[in-house]
User: What shape does this take?
Amino acid sequence: MYFPGETPKDVLLRKTPKPNTVSPLLRYVQQLQIETGNLIEWGCGGGWNLVPFRDAGWSVQGFDYDRPYIELGRSLLGLQLDEIPTEGSGTQVDQPDVIVLNHVLEHAIDPKALLQRLHNLCSDTTTLVVGVPLLETIPIWHWRDFFHVAHIHYFSAESLVRVATQSGFQITHSDIQNGMFSLKKNAAVDSPPPSKNAVLRSSILLMKGFVEPPYRTRQLIRQTLAAFRLLHLARRLKKRVAG
Assistant: This one.
């Protein structure tokens, strides 16, 4: 769905950062001023997100359903990766200081159930870091790339807070521009269904993401140039001017 024509090994090598890279995920956790400790990633793929944390001194462990990526992460990256156990069976993890759930929640059939499962792995001091593509961030991805067949849910910041609260977490920090949230364990709270105003706000975000005048204008110019077979020439001129 995501990388047609690439082998799992090719994807792993391409997505794995260079040694001692400060990735956006690592930078976000550092901004939370959490002391280096134990970190697990739920939905880790081949473990490429874990490498910067390990290089920064964290003890890391990853879980995923994809066995080929798990095996590659073990053999090529030397990471401790395990298959996600079936619901109800024990999950062998060190007491985590941080759990990372990065661009996974939108794939879950039941996001609330997934968060509740991770709730059981958290201590009172554990920070759950959640990254999701928010409706507010459509202009970053652009309309066509934001929506994907593998995504089941699309959250706004408001709906993410609602499902986290219902799952027994409280939001302790948010970076809406980058779709990042930090959560702490809390008692589950029943919240009312989305209000008409919440639905309206989400609709406005969708409309703004669809219209996005600067991006649409660039697309129109690009399509017009392509129709007149001038796109290649325009790119050469742009490169010459930039140089």
About this structure: The two ends are 37 Å apart (CA to CA). Residues 221 and 231 are 9 Å apart (CA to CA). The first helix runs from residue 8 to 15. The beta strands are 38-42, 59-64, 81-83, 98-102, 127-131, 169-175, 180-185.
